[in-house]
# Entry
Amino acid sequence: MRKIAFTSLALASSMVFAQENQSAKDSMVISNKKELDSLKLEIQSLKEMVAASSADKKEEKKASKWYDKISFGGYIQVRYNEFLETNPELDCEQCDPYWGKGADGISFRRVRFKFEGQILPRVYFYLQPDFTKVVGSSRYIATLQDAYFDVGLNSKNEYKIRLGQSKLPFGYEIMQSSSERIPLDRSDAINSSVKGERDFGMYFMWTGQKRKDIMNEIKDKGLKHSGDFGVFAFGFYNGQAANNTDKNKKFHWLTRISYPFRLGQQILEPSIQAYTGKYVIPQVSTGVKVNNNGEYIDQRIAASFVLYPQPFGIQIEYNIGKGPQYNHNTNSIEAKNLYGGYAMFSYYIKKWNQLFIPFMRLQHYNGAKKHELDARSYNMKQFELGVEWAPFKALEITAVYTYSDRAHKDFVNPNYHEKGGLIRLQAQLKF
# Structure
């Protein structure tokens, strides 16, 4: 009886142990299954996150179009040219239409918007209209200033072809934007080479990477650079100035060599440039004698030197050449020699988080302005003393005292000779 009881107890205990062991195994399996399911969920979640991130990148890459690389900017210049004016008859047609007899109180000198961008690794474009053209009694007419594109010939765009209407790579002042120039106007001697500084042409330009780095440094330091027109440039253009058709189917040819370099803490840039071609006189008074359908030799060579202001700056340019010029004695337009240039000195003063640039410029020119009536002959001298003040980066205010002695001759007015002084004021907003 005891054996039966013991055996029954042992059997019952064994069954209980077996059940507990099975229960523990079942519990472990369930726990492992839960962990596995949780791990599967985490893996699935990670897969979805990776897929979403990849989709976002693809969408972002897909959404990036060439037009996303276009930037917009510009500048507005407001001037007053009548403060303490001693001679209202003194003017400069090419400098500022609102100086002298054309004065009209406070006026816009330039209102320009620019669109530009490296739309492809080797393609850059630039477009700039202006809204201050004077046509007869109408003013503030829109005109095209620049419209060109550069095509890089290597991966770094050190070699490039420029095609379109752009500034001529002739003369530092001509290449330099009016928004960057310290004096209010370009000098007569250099600017008389081309009306509006621009023409339609095609140029090959080369700038090595080391020179590019120096140009970028000049720009980054705010030293008013002229832009990258190539350390070497060679090309041709129509020759009749911007927004004018070619008159004789003969190109002007131009070349320029420049070399910006460091000397200690200073940056210097000497350059030499020249052009040659045949120019057709656009405006001739009745009775004035012209030769060969108004076509004349038009050629110049110029030297430039710039010491970028750190803090003292020097800018000098001089050119000589030959071109059409009115001769009052013979009442005719003849090919005659021309010469002239300027020297400017400036000093950068950074104080109170503002920039002050006092400057002085001397200039003279003996020659003609071929684009004016009868290729008007000039003999002029001018002195300027002023200061540019930038209270903050986007705003520049310039005040300059100008004393000018100007004589010119054409058929209508062969005895113009005026001299006098005035203070000219300008406020410029850049954006």
Notes: Residues 74-430 form a domain with the Porin fold (CATH 2.40.160.10). The two ends are 111 Å apart (CA to CA). Residues 76 and 111 are 5 Å apart (CA to CA).
